[in-house]
Records
---
Amino acid sequence: MILAGARHRRRSTGRCLFAVLWGLAAFLLQGPAALAQTVRVGGKDFTEQVLLAELTSQLLQAKGYSVSTQTGFASAGLRREQEMGLVDLYWEYTGTSLVTYNNVTERLSPEDAFKRVRDLDASKGIIWLPTSRVNNTYALAMRRADAQTRGIVSISDLATKARNGQRFRLACNTEFFIRSDGLMPLQRAYRFEFSQPDIARVETSAVYDLLRDGQADVGLVFATDGRVAALDLLVLQDDRKFFPNYSLAPVVRKELLDRDPALASHLGRLAEQLDNPTMAGLNAEVDVQNNPVTEVATSFLKSRGLL
């Protein structure tokens, strides 16, 4: 009886081991997609980036991926997270990578800028997928009525009046204040300077509040922000072409794309749907109409046949 029991235990152990090995083999035979189902999506700390992260997460979840999403990063912090392998993908702007991450200061066409950042970042294991038609460049804006009263349509006009003694209160976010393509080099390029007491460093959303309430005369805005039109702001012409092109594209860790090439196709379908008017409209739904980001993203994806 003891020998029979031992044989039974050996047969049971063998069957359990076989089941485990069979299950592991079946999992591996499902290929790269099964091994890459959990995707870590990142985003920066302003509405457009939160929306892009939500759009991406919902789209990938609909394709069967398990997704974790984290937003609220500054640009440098998010880039660092991706280089460390803690974020798999997010949406980046060519100008940011060109100037801030790769220290390229020469003026390039949008096409050449994309090629340059694509090649430079590839050496770091980061792949740029084809861009959308969004160019979310920085801009300076004023209340339209105020700009018209002062006779200002360009940054050169603003600089001339500042050099002649007119006072302007500026609202900008901290990132622009310290960036290598930000406030200090802008002032050098246009040969003027805001007085330090007249510079308010605030959250991006607060810039629009200060402009609306007359507590700032000039504000740093984004080209695709829906509040520009809603508040009837005049975007000043960058007549010296200081700001580079900020074409928007998904950037993905090479390790993830190697495991799951289909990911590029999913992200490409989303990128094809995005241009400046579309992005501005989505941003306005959140910032002006106060609709939840999740609902805005779901509605858009369904309207474009992506869900």
Note: DSSP finds 16 helices and ten strands in the chain.
---
Amino acid sequence: MHLPNSIAVRKMNNMARTDACADVLVLCYHAVDETWPAELSVTPQAFERQLDVLVERGYESVTFREAVFAPRKSRTVAITFDDAFRSVQAQAFPRLAERGFVGTVFVPTSFVDRGEPASWDGVAQWLGTLHEQQLLPLTQAELLELAGAGWEIGSHTCTHPHLTQLRDDELARELVESRRRCAELLGHPCTTLAYPYGDVDERVRRSAERAGYEAAGSLPARFDRPTPLDWPRVGIWHEDGDRTFALKVSPKLRRLRRSPLWTALDAARLRSVRPRKS
């Protein structure tokens, strides 16, 4: 009789524990800033209200890896930040610490300690504006400070590309080199990843596994059965008011997003906002 190896057994057991957990919530933020009107930035005031909702609902804060493999109680939340902007350390970190929360930040490693603003599709339009400083990335020293406070530091590739559009060799380089660089920056292995733009398919997942990642966050419309290398996160955006946030983090809505009905509802929504042909 063939028995799976010990790593596979541990992963299956961990997945069983996750399935048994009543509520595992993973949020995806990017920046916290008072004046930046970008879609990916939330104000400090909104962020505080959102955290207080989580506290009131009894969520226990864990890192992304812990949410995937070792949720601690019936209500578990992992608060993740893509892009590693400095506002994460300056604005989000103290507000999370006040509530006994930790976070996870996913780092595009090519920008660390370059002293230059980030520049990729989706943020480059802010270069040369009053908000260019919001694009400055966290330094190695700041990442180490967060890690020392119990935060998890994961990879967000090297240069923040659309991974599904890369050739196989380019894809492997982005994943392998960023994981190596994270380990170099932090002094310990990097095992988690967030796919830039939530852009992932089966080829990208297989490449991430070959690169040595054990868990990776995505941003799907529909929440199919989670797997460690395609773990759904709830994106939180600039226009999300208090009622929208409360709805987004509702266990009932997230259960709906796992059902086939969500696909039909999402398609209907897209049709309703599609521009009419002239």
Note: The longest strand covers residues 75-82.
